[in-house]
Amino acid sequence: MIPEEKLNSALRQVRWLVLDVDGVLTDGRLYFDNNGNELKTFNTLDGHGIKMLQKSGVRVAIITGRRSAVVERRAHDLGINKLIQGREDKFSALQELFADDPCRLEDIAYVGDDYPDLLVMTRIGCPISVPDAAPPVRERALWITEARGGEGAVREVCDRIMQAQGTFDAALAPYLAPAAPGEH
After folding, report:
1. Annotated binding site for substrate
2. pLDDT for res 28
3. Pair 45, 68: CB distance under 8 Å
4. From the annotation, which residues make up the binding site?
5. Binding positions for substrate (predicted)?
6. What is the pTM of this model?
7. What whole-number distance in Å separates Cα of residue 77 and Cα of residue 51?
């Protein structure tokens, strides 16, 4: 386990959060209906955390090894316009992602769970893993979330980035409006 201050220092630097899908935004299981359509379940806590994080100034992108119209729709619904699908070489995909909008590798947090994520995780400033990730991924993570993939891990990451950057209280404030006169 790394010292808390080292983790907070890395989180304060984050300008981009890049996410894997299967095993991070989902529980990693693949569902298919009788017509061969792929189904995925996403956690609403993760989605709202992503929206709050983006409002705080941190941008979000997705790189995934599979192609899915469901992921495209989810990214669109969350206002994520940097999405690369169907890529096992995630580091090359990361380089493409930032070709027109350069970003220092030190300013990127990435959440992964499996071997294809390692090429990115070993090169960026803040590698993060979910607890049910492959052991080599957990070993190379700066931080391992408490929540599992698809069960609020991304929300945990979003909240923690905002806390480290001092933007969490402002992001939460609209939900804590004082009661109107006469309300209890």
Report:
1. 22
2. 92
3. no
4. 20, 22, 113
5. 22
6. 0.93
7. 10
